[in-house]
Automatic annotation (TrEMBL), chain A:
Species the sequence originates in: Ambispora leptoticha
Compositionally skewed regions (Basic and acidic residues) per UniProt: 311-336
Protein name: Cytoplasmic tRNA 2-thiolation protein 1
Top EC class of this enzyme: transferase
Recorded family membership: Belongs to the TtcA family. CTU1/NCS6/ATPBD3 subfamily.
Region (Disordered): 309-336
Domain of life of the source: Eukaryota
Function: Plays a central role in 2-thiolation of mcm(5)S(2)U at tRNA wobble positions of tRNA(Lys), tRNA(Glu) and tRNA(Gln). Directly binds tRNAs and probably acts by catalyzing adenylation of tRNAs, an intermediate required for 2-thiolation. It is unclear whether it acts as a sulfurtransferase that transfers sulfur from thiocarboxylated URM1 onto the uridine of tRNAs at wobble position. Prior mcm(5) tRNA modification by the elongator complex is required for 2-thiolation. May also be involved in protein urmylation.
PANTHER family, sorted: ATPASES OF THE PP SUPERFAMILY-RELATED, CYTOPLASMIC TRNA 2-THIOLATION PROTEIN 1
GO biological process: protein urmylation; tRNA wobble position uridine thiolation
Keywords: ATP-binding, Cytoplasm, Nucleotide-binding, RNA-binding, Transferase, tRNA processing, tRNA-binding
Enzyme Commission number(s): 2.7.7.-
GO molecular function: ATP binding; nucleotidyltransferase activity; tRNA binding
Automatic annotation (TrEMBL), chain B:
Protein name, UniProt field: Cytoplasmic tRNA 2-thiolation protein 2
InterPro entries hit by this protein: COA8 (IPR018796), CTU2 (IPR019407), Rossmann-like_a/b/a_fold (IPR014729)
Organism: Ambispora leptoticha
Gene of this entry: NCS2
Top-level taxon of origin: Eukaryota
Keywords, ordered alphabetically: Cytoplasm, tRNA processing
Associated pathway: tRNA modification; 5-methoxycarbonylmethyl-2-thiouridine-tRNA biosynthesis
First-listed, main subcellular location of the protein, grouped into a coarse class: cytoplasm
Subcellular location: Cytoplasm
Amino acid sequence: MSRLCVICKEERASVKRPKTGEKLCRNCFYHIFETEVHCTITDNKLFKSGDRVAIAASGGKDSTVLAHVMKTLNDRYDYGLDLFLLSVDEGITGYRDDSLETVKRNQQQYNLPLKIVSYSELYGWTMDEIVKEVGLKNNCTFCGVFRRQALDRGAVMLNIDHIVTGHNADDIAETVLMNILRGDIARLERCTEICTTGDGRIRRSKPFKYAYEKEIVMYAYFKKLDYFSTECVYSPNSYRGHARAFLKDLEAIRPSAIIDIIYSGEAFQIKQDVKLPTQGAESWIAERKIHGEMPENIATMLHFDQLQIEEGSRKNESDKDKKREEGEEKGEKNEW
Amino acid sequence: MCNIEEPILVKEQATLSTGKKCIKCKVANATILIRYSTYCKSCFQHVFVGKFRKNLEKSRVTHSGSDEKAMVALSGGPSSRCLLQLLRDYCEPLPHEISKKSIFNEVKICHVDESVAIFDDQEKEKENSTLHKVELIARKYNYEFIGLRLEEIFSPEYTSIGFYDNVIEVTFDDSKRTQAKELLSRIYTQSSLSNREKLKSLLGAISSLTSKEELLWHFKLCLLMQMAHVIILRPMKDMLSKEIGIYNRFTGLVDDIVVTPTLTSMMPAKSSIEKLTEDFIVGLEKDYPSTVSTIARTGAKLKPSNLINLEWSCAVCMMPYKEGIKNWQSRITVHMKQSPLPSQSPFASPSQKSTPMDYHNSSCQCASNGSCCAANNISDQQYNHHKQLQRPNLEISDTLCYACLVNMRDIKSIVEFPPYVAEAIVQKIQKATNATVTISPTRLKSKFFATAELYSHKSLKTDYVGIPDKISNLRPIKYYIPENESPQDIEWRLHRERVDQLNHQFWTINNKLFIDEKQEYEDQIKLKTGRKPTPAEMSIFYKDFLDKAYDRQMAYNKQWWKENIGMLVPGGKAAIRNFRIWMPKRLRTRISFFEKNASS
């Protein structure tokens, strides 16, 4: 026997909600999912009217749903935001080139302006070339660092106030767990923050902080959104993989576990007398404007620099290229 | 998190045949590998004991010299067994170490026997009881031994005033109210329910092992806290279970351990969160050998967020917690179709936040999320429904921390919690409402429902019929309770109360709907025509309303007929009983059964 939706009590229930196990009809599911994101946005006062907001779009499920929901909410509640799609082309053949096609289609579907910034433009290296040099180990770490920076640069080009990313509740709970397991207290404190400010004035936030990955997938599936789903061809972070598997098991035992972990992450803070690792590298970071100022990132960056020095001639060339391209981009800024 | 109480099997250490030297004395051949370091036997023991003493001294709270008392919580497992030995060695130094002064002048041992929670039948419980085995261990030491059983948590002495024995009724959503009444009748009729049975029925009502484990842990801690009233020290917190296992082996303690089965013994890893986490950490430690110590150190660097009010503590686990959990949850997990106000500027007005909160104040029902997210309608609902709405209404969820609230979702029926929980809730209500709930020792023997105004049935001399309810139009009846009320009488009274409640509920909802819809209809007409609707127009609405309400009304009628027929036999019996008791004395003061039915 089919049951009625627990919310409207009119339609037949066709969805079992992963977060609570409630049986809902599709329309109520959409409505509730969107309302929760809306609550997250308004409770945390993420935006103000007139903000220029870039949606970091990878073509994957999270960012596609984010683009859809942001557009819907912006229209429904009259946020008064200027929305843009901002993509980063890491230059990974067989992964990013395909997903960028999806982003381009999304641009048409949602009628939002799109900007793509590529690693090769910004740094003179594609991810494929980097992997060729450094091997598969650790490549995710600095691909991440590069992407952050690339997003910021793209945002500056578009004169953006705010970048929203598709990080979901699963990602955040995973990060909390991982930072506890690794003893990374500096990040542990920051990773539950919904809104962070990078260098300069650009704010970054995660409107999907409390949205379950499963629900995002369901939303995309039922709404028949156009998204691209493949893992990155380069090996995923294995330590995160452990945390991810553990989190999925926890969720199977108790569906609220993900939210519970985020709640815990918000309920503690670092004792005042604990020294955060600094490594005396602040000045260096400030100069280079590298985000994610954690020691391991710095180490990777140094390592990467070292590689570039070894390839001296090539580095010089790419540096010049980079500067030239940057100049051009600044000129191009208002074109599209 | 990681349960280090599990027994460890230590393989013969001879396998470490790489010829490495001990990193400490650098002379003897190493036999033990801890993380990345190799030790010989004597150096290992020295380091281990040293670590223990350092931890203990670091965590000293007062520096008043050697006049503190200590209690060892001894489960009998490897860790606590080892702790006891280390503490003894520490407090009674060997002659050549006499210069070291001890910080404790008295040590007690306390054991909580949990077998009641783990085994189903009494035979097995006795067979596997750990109390005597642990007592045997404790006798080897010259310390006082306190043996407790977990079910004693239901005794009134384990409360902060030491004799709290009241039962408070915490009503859940309406569908559960009849169940609550049944529980009440059980408490009345079988007040002889033993502590053991109470604990069993409580655990039986919890659907997940995780919540069971957590609740047991809180109860155990509460028992220990009541015995000791102190700060808890965990001097072994950064010792690996492997280290403890090896130490126990070297000192011959390994044969002197009581293996305590837990709820998840012999269960797969995914049976509870605790078990899964243990499994995960142990697995991770294999690949990343410093995981356990990293987690312990990370934990030591954290403290509760500034937003947490340290004065409020959870009624169940006694830990401080953040207020406004319910509101937080309602924003993140939406359960109903609310339309967040489409105000001009969604980011400016904080007033918007009040939307979900109003919901709880306006209605005593709550979002149907499990059994326990309930309004704390502590008094007899049907009699002071109105007062209830006006009084600051403390929700039960406001007395629990987030984790306990999550656990409560797994409780599927109405259960009795230990008195210390009830005490904590009543104290909170007092604080929040400034109501004078007096806990008088004279009432100790009779269990009753503590209400915010101590509204007790016992004060009535005869049945009371109140003024009609403003919404349901029904007159509430408060039934007289004779001194020596028999079980049948209790059942009969509860039955009538339940039926009254049913009527009251239906008519409240029905009349509310009617009033609202009528208002709406009148407004519509007014908008269209600019005058009040004529009787002819109103009749359209009446017909329409009745048509719409047909199913609801019919269901209620059927229920009401059923109840009426069902009440015939017990009502007849009651009438006969009353006739026998009262007629000869010609003192009939009660309204008869038939008159009463007519009035409702």
